[in-house]
Amino acid sequence: MNENLTSNKRRIFIRSKDRVCQLFSFEQTLDGSIYCASPDFPDAHWVTIEKCDDQILLMTTESLGQGKISFHGTGMVAIRPNDNPKDHKHIVKGNYLIDLSKGMAGMRHLFTVFLKEPQYDPSNSPLFNRKSDYCLEANEELKPLVLLFFAIPKQGIEVDFQFCLHVEDMGNIPGDILGLHGFGLRYHDIFWFAYRTKHMVKWPKQSQISYHDGFTFPVFIGTGIGTYRLENRQPKYSLINNHLVIVCDQKYPDDYSNP
C-alpha cells in the first residue's frame, strides 16, 4: 500500500470521466474499532447467510435507515442505526482488530458491496477539501462494480491479492479486475479491491452489502439483470516477513442465489 497519509477519519470518493461522488466515510477510534457510514446506507439491502431449520439460506434485509457498520476491536460486527445507537442488528463475531491486552493488531475482511449508482456530491465540501480525503480513480465512464474492503495492520505490509472468477462469469478480461489500492487509518491500512462480472450490466436499485467473520468473506457474482449469487469464499492467507498473500480462489461452503 503506497498511501502515505494516515488519519483516524477518511472520506472515500470515486472519480470518473462523468462524475465525482462520495461513497463512504471511515473512522477508527482509539480502541481500534472501525466505523463506516455511507450516503447510500438509508436504502441499502443487507445480505447475510443464515442457518434456519438445518438449512443455509440467503437472507436480505431491506433498509434499516441511516447508520453505520461497526467493526469493534474485539471482532464483533453489527449495523448500528443513528436514531437508536444501542440497537445493534446483524451481529457477527469474528477476527479481532485490536487486542489491547497484548498490544496486537489483527487482519480481517470488513465488507463487500455491490454499489448502486453513485450520485452523492457533497458540494459544500468537495473532494480534497480535506487533506484526509481519498479517491478511487476510474479511467472510463463509471459502470457497475463490486468493492471488497480489508483491514490490514499498519506495519508496512505489502499485499498481494489473488482473485479469480469462473470462466462463465467473466465478461471482458482484464476489464473485470478494475483495481486495488489502499488508504491509512489510525492502526490499520484499508485495502480495497474492485471487480465486476459478466452479468453486471446495470446498477442495482439499492446497494447490496454483506459481511461475515473476517476470515471467510462474501463475493457477489452477477447471474442476470437485477439478480446475483453470493459466494462465501475461504481464502488462503500467508505472511512472510512483511509480504502478505491472500489467495481468493475457493468457494466455501456453497454459493447462494438471491430471489
Strand order across the biggest sheet? 8-7-6-3-2-1-12
Extract low-pLDDT stretches: none
The first-to-last residue Cα distance is 38 Å
Structural class: mainly beta
Total E-strand runs = 22
| Portion in helices | under 10%
| N-to-C SSE string, H for helix and E for strand | EEEEEEEEEEEEEEEEEEEEEE
Shape: globular
Oligomer: single chain
Number of helices: 0
In total, the number of domains comes to 1
The radius of gyration computed from the alpha-carbon positions, rounded to a whole number of angstroms, is 17 Å
Strand content bin:
over 45%
**Most strands sheet:** 7 strands, mixed
Mean pLDDT: 85
Task: Walk me through this protein's architecture.
The protein has 259 residues and is an all-beta fold. It has one domain (9-257). 0% of the residues lie in helices and 49% in strands. It is built from no helices and 22 strands. The strands form five sheets. Strands 8-7-6-3-2-1-12 form a seven-stranded mixed β-sheet, with no helix packed on it. The protein has a seven-stranded mixed β-sheet with strand order 5-4-17-11-13-16-15, with no helix packed on it. It has a three-stranded mixed β-sheet with strand order 14-21-20, with no helix packed on it. A hairpin with a 4-residue loop joins strand 6 (67-71) and strand 7 (76-81). It is globular, with a radius of gyration of 17 Å. The relative contact order is 0.21. The model has no long low-confidence stretch (mean pLDDT 85).
